[in-house]
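Morning F.,

Quick status update on the modeling queue. The single chain you submitted on Monday has been processed. Sequence for confirmation:
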Amino acid sequence: MTQGKRIPSWFVYFFGSFGGILFGYDIGVMTGALPFLETDWHLTNATVTGLITSAVMFGAIFGGALAGQLSDRLGRRKLILYSAIIFAAGSLLSAAAPNDGSIFLIIVRIFLGLGVGAASALVPAYMSEMAPAHLRGRLSGLNQTMIVSGMLLSYIMDYVLKGLPNQMAWRVMLGLAAVPAVILFLGVLRLPESPRFLIKTGHPDQARQVLSSLRSGQNVDAEMDTIQSTAKQEASATKSTSMSTLISKKYRYLVIAGVGIAAFQQFQGANAIFYYIPLIVEKATGTSASSALMWPIIQGVILFIGSLVFLVIADKINRRTLLIIGGITMGFSFILPAIVNWLLPNTNPMLIVVFLCIYVAGYSCTWAPLTWVITGEMFPLAIRGRASGVASSFNWIGSWAVGLLFPIMTASMSQQAVFAIFGVICLLGVLFVRFRVPETRGHTLEEIEAQGTNHESQSALESVNDESK
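Structure tokens below.
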């Protein structure tokens, strides 16, 4: 970037969003590729299928954690560029996997997951640091919209390419993920580093130039003062914070709430649908999974519409209320097909797919975007970095576990029973929100922290009273 040259804000936000599209594309593309891969390699082992599918999430567990550490040393922009390179290389290597090379493909997809995890952590952070304060909240929901747009794009490409021979179809599907990776790399090359990172690393003059190019006609001095003050507070907080701080009485309630929300979002089973919907339809109807690639597109459209609905209602309805309504909807969408199938064994097997669509609708405008909004609002400054990293790791662990275990579970029990288990987890998530999660909408970070402190104090008082009885 040429210093002093004004950067159009739409260009910054577009390529920030494009990172979300790339993330979503890489998550979704395996949905359509898997049926062709199974046919080409004659995969019948459910464990191998689960390992190939979930390998990206396993790599993402470490990619997100590493990105959080390295971005404070190397910068957000540079790490996004590295992530794009990993995306491109991993996609091409996946497409070039040798015949029956399950181990090779698993290892390559773990490598690819490093880029996925890094992008999921870096892109929202970069966007929020580049945006003016009044746009930061909206960008949380916009990032989710871009992710599901990437998923929908991958589903459409899978459908378009389904006419190719089996041995070629899955390779082209996986390899094409390199195209948006290259576009992201070329776009981010023109972007500046985040002003906050420049200030933290002792380059205030460069930070001022970046802000001046982005904030035409606005008070750059005031924003510089704010960023410098916040950077000093964060530096002080980081020095005095350790992992043991997260479980101290002062912060324990909020950490459990935030990490619990992040874990429940994945253990509720959403990725079982997003990764395996063609195989779910195949098992329900007996038709070929490669002929069921319209269903991922339907799920993707529902996800996209739901993300837009969230943008409308995000700041109008309490966070807890949305999570509870969404969780109940999702839970019964999973449980009711099992009940119906038990009472009426001859019911049309496509009933489960209809209920899965209802689940996706509820998930797309509640738990999917709200998880990251809440974890962004809930953690106090002193523990925000470490607590956010733990929450992200638990989220990816849940995503990996569901991707790995779903085909194994459906190989040993009916799909209705498997989804009923996920339904129970959804309802447990509702109870968790009801009793363990504070409301964050409309509250300052100080007020939220006070809620946590008061809750721990009240719990300690109740414990003392119980012991004295």
